[in-house]
Amino acid sequence: MARSGVRFEDVQRAIDELMAAGQAPSVQRIRETLGTGSFTTISEHLREWRKRREENRDVPPPRGMPAPLQELAESLWQQAQEAANEALVHYRREADDKVDEAQESVTAAERRAEDAEQREAALSAHLTRTDERLTEQTAELARLQADHDSLQAAEARQRDARGRLEARLDELQGELERQAQAHRQALEDQEAAQQRRLAQEEQRHEAAEARLMGLVDEARQERQSAEKAHATRIERLEKRLEAARSEQQSLREALQEEEKRRRSEEQARRDVETSRDSLDQERARLEARLADSQAALAARQARVEGLEKQLEARLWSSLEMMQESQARLEAAAENASGPDDAGPEQREDE
Question: InterPro entries per the record (predicted)?
């Protein structure tokens, strides 16, 4: 319920003043115009004014007044309607702008909240990764410390081993020098032996050269003999080559004759194959006819055997009938001759 301090008429007058000034009515502006009143009361009266305006939007001015006054009233009513519509459009635009601003503020606040949550999640993940890396680095540091201790122990062992190796190296160097001295002595002895062998080889070479000269003379003589024998062999080979050429010519002629004969035989063979194909076809036809004849003969033989069986059955049947007829005739004859045969005997007895 509205308070008694601010009435509906006061709010309506303030709204008219604002609309006359070209401003859209709002709770804040109405309160500033009135200079008093609570926001709740002014808001209730403003809703009531809007409700009445919506109900009376299309109600025309009252009739029954003079025409000039009626026209003036209608004109004023039209102007008031247009002003009210413009004020309403302006008010709605401002309300929409405020709603958009509020929505943007809410969206921005939501984005800031999401960003804060994402930053918090990122910081939490970063802290987790930092803790994990710290743990890993601590373990790595412990492992490196252990490796350092083991490396120091290994270094001490290597220093001891190096001392032993240096002592062994000194011993080996002395041994190497002794072996080098022995090797040099052996080389000198070997060189002297090689000099002696070289002198012996030179002597053998001179003797071999003398023998080689003798062998060269012998080889020269043998070559002359071989050249003569070679010339003789070449002459014989030329004669044999001439004979071979003659024989080759004869063989070529014989080969040509043989080729002609082979072609004739090939033609004859093709003719024979053609004849054989014809004979095979004729034989196939004859075999087909023979098969047909054999089939017909088998069918005829089967019919003859069937007829023979039927004839035999009929003959047996006729024979049985004849035997039965003969038996009946004999029985009838016996029956017919029985009384005649008994009569004379009876008469003789009498």
Answer: KfrA_DNA-bd_N (IPR021104)
Q: What is the mean pLDDT of the chain?
A: 81
Q: Are 5 and 47 in contact (CB under 8 A)?
A: no
For 146-178, write each residue's pLDDT tens digit: 888 888 888 888 888 888 888 888 888 888 788
* 39-55 helix and 27-34 helix, angle to the nearest 10 degrees: 110
Torsion-angle region of 25 (φ positive above 0: left; ψ -120 to 50: alpha; else: beta): beta
74 vs 139, residue with greater confidence: 139
Residues 6+ apart with CB under 8 A from 10: 34, 37, 45
Number of other residues whose CB lies within 10 A of the CB of residue 111: 10
Rounded-to-integer distance, Cα 87 and Cα 94, Å: 10
User: How many CB atoms neighbour CB 200 within 10 A?
Assistant: 10
Question: Which residues are within 8 A (CB) of 5 and not within 5 positions of it... i.e. 6 or more apart?
Answer: 36, 37, 38, 41
Are the C-beta atoms of 26 and 45 separated by less than 8 Å? no
Contact of 41 with 6, CB cutoff 8 Å: yes
pTM over 0.70, yes/no: no
Residue 64 Rama label (left phi>0; alpha psi -120 to 50; beta): left
| CB 45, CB 29: distance < 8 Å | no
Helix (H) or strand (E) holding 85: helix 67-349
- For the chain, what's the residue count? 350
What residue has token string 């004020």?
A: 87
**Pairwise CA distance, residues 154 & 109, whole Å:** 65
- The Cα 166–Cα 171 span in angstroms is 9
Pairwise CA distance, residues 131 & 121, whole Å: 15
Q: Decide if 2 contacts 45 (C-beta within 8 A).
A: yes
